[in-house]
Amino acid sequence: MNKKEQIPETRLTIALCGNPNSGKTTLFNQLTGSNQKVGNWPGVTVEQKTGIYKDDKSVAIVDTPGIYSLSPFTIDEQVAHDYLFSGKPDLIINIVDSTNLERNLFLTTQLAELDIPMVVALNMLDEAEAQGIHIDTEKLSEQLGCAFFSISAAKNIGIDKLMQYCIAGNIAQRKPLRYLARTEDALTAITNTIELPNKRWTAVKLLERDKNFAKTIDVPQEVNDIVERYHKENPELSTSDIAEQRYSHIEKIVASCTTSQKKTSKQHAERMTDKIDKIVLNKWLAFPIFALVMVIVFFVSVGGLGGWLSGLIADELTPWSQGIVAGWLEPANQPWLTSLIVDGVMGGVLSVVSFVPQIMLLFGFIAILEASGYMSRIAFIMDRLLNKIGLGGKSFVSMIIGCGCSVPAIMSTRTIKNINERNSTITLTPFMPCSAKMAIISFFTAKLLGGNALVAVSFYFASIIAVILGGLILKVFSRKKTSASDTFLMELPVYRMPSPSSVLKQMWDRGKSFLAKAGTVILTASVVLWLLQSFNWRFNMVTTDQSMLASIGKLLAPLFVPLGFGSWEFAVATLTGIAAKETVVTTLEILIPEGMIATYISSWGAYCFVIYNLLTIPCVAAISASFTEQGKVRNGLMSMLFQLVVAYVVTLVLYQVGNLAIKYTSATIVTVSCLVLAFALYFSVRYLVKHKGCNYECDHCPNNEHCTKR
Ligand code: GDP
Ligand code: MG
Q1: Interval 137-157: pLDDT, tens
Q2: Which of 242, 284, 560, 582 has the fewest CB atoms within 10 Å, i.e. the most exposed one?
Q3: Relative to the CA of 26, which ligand 1 atom is closest?
Q4: Are 81 and 111 in contact (CB under 8 A)?
Q5: Ligand 1 pocket check: which of 17, 19, 26 to mutate, most ligand atoms within 8 Å of Cβ?
Q6: The pLDDT value given to residue 689
Q7: Verdict on whether the full-model pTM lies above 0.70
Q8: What separation in Å is there between the alpha carbon of 247 and the centre of ligand 2?
């Protein structure tokens, strides 16, 4: 969301710009006091975000997605690129990861070729120090012209000094790199001919014969001639020659400005990381360890502590507060008012609020897994597996974000270059149980499935299986071939101790947004539901069974009989879930008398009901994100249709097979049906993987078979 329009006139706009994972968002949060998501992996920020500097309200700070160079490849890189060239930023703060100076300076030297003033923040000072890296900022300033500041965004070191310098306004002039004499001559000739902003950068790009760049501007014939002459006169130079010159300069600069006593701590950190990785990335151990981690996370957050806290709210606090309010309302002697407030509003809203402890705990764990660097490993090990189904490691990052909320998850697909991979990820991400669906999982686990945390975990694994199957199906049916996907270049960061404050902040953030939703969307939905269930079409107050809601529900209910939840209350709940998934729980709480739910549905039906709600179309917010991100209405509609069909078919098969097994509790039948199902699954997956789908047009294999490239 670009909030620039809502922000009052500012006198200075500072863009934070740098490589992925260098700490831009951490610095942004420090400067603006806001709480944007940070993560120990690239691709967390996919949109620019504007905030106001907390110590000087006339300064706007803009966080941009990470880029390695000024030549954009993916949508998020394009976002950063376009913003820099929009003419809006007055100053760039280039955030550089001090522990990775050489790679980061590539972008720095490109930024120095733009007309925008620049200051460089050498971030991760704490880590650089711990690793025995010393950077001579004076010398760097001498060589590149602009000012360099050592900071630690996470530890809030050196930030004030950096900002004082930026705001004072006496920004040192940048000194762009000097290339070889003949390159410089050609650059000068071009800059003398063109009348465009960012002349030097434009000249460099034209001389590099960057076709994509040349398309975006009007290149005079004279300039084309200079470029052609340059390449003709220097046939030994390749098009990447300028980049190579840049690299060799950077190498020299880094050698002269840093001293590294690469002794104890860096080696220690690397050794530790290597040791841990040997175990968690081990071919055989990686998946069992991941499964174990998830089980532990669920035992604590959904079962143990989280379950106990939620139970306290649902079973003690809710009836107690409802009793008090009912007592207050008694003198008014208006049963409908009491019913609206106590059953409708309080019942609906509190049923959702009771999940806050579980959700906060779960997100605390996810924050720890992200910040420590373990999540990057999971994405890494998933990459190869996901490639087989037309997705990649980046899709997995989206899926993990999707465990929080599908909306940012769908937006995070902007980092995916391959269009098929991107659209598939957008369609499949909503299968992940977001925090709202967590409420459905917890509700049914507690009420009908024995409160077993393993059952809760099984829903997560069911989602993963649905993603895999869905991916395969999409891969086979998407006919459009696209160019080979980008190889997944996720760096595996060193393991870091997660900062407790950032973990707490993320927990608080998730809890807060959940509560905010309970106070707005859920509250409104509760009131509307109460009205629909209290009145008939003639607006007479009636019993629930004769209400408008019942008549709608009864119309839909037959559809769901084969899925195991044929009573109209459940049909209505699947419908109201489109407003927000928490509403599924709210609806059932309002419609079904306290303690009676087990008479409405069997345990197995309840399990299937949860599965259906996990897989069916997401809430309106996610649907609209899916339409916007896919660009075409047709693609958005196809996604929805796909989700509906998958949800219906999967639930149907699951319920019917399970029911057979339960009905004939004969061990043979159970075993045979499980075996048949397992075989069917195995062979269909094998068939889909081997015979059909390759979304990629590779030069290597015209018939797309035995493709080893992907
Ligand atoms: P971005 O991709 O550039 O926006 O980077 P983030 O702000 O998301 O940060 C990437 C990772 O680096 C996160 O795990 C941060 O906690 C961590 N980080 C950021 N700044 C520092 C710092 O100064 N010191 C240390 N040790 N870690 C940092
Ligand atoms: Mg970021």
Answers
A1: 999 999 888 999 999 999 999
A2: 284
A3: 7
A4: no
A5: 26
A6: 63
A7: no
A8: 25
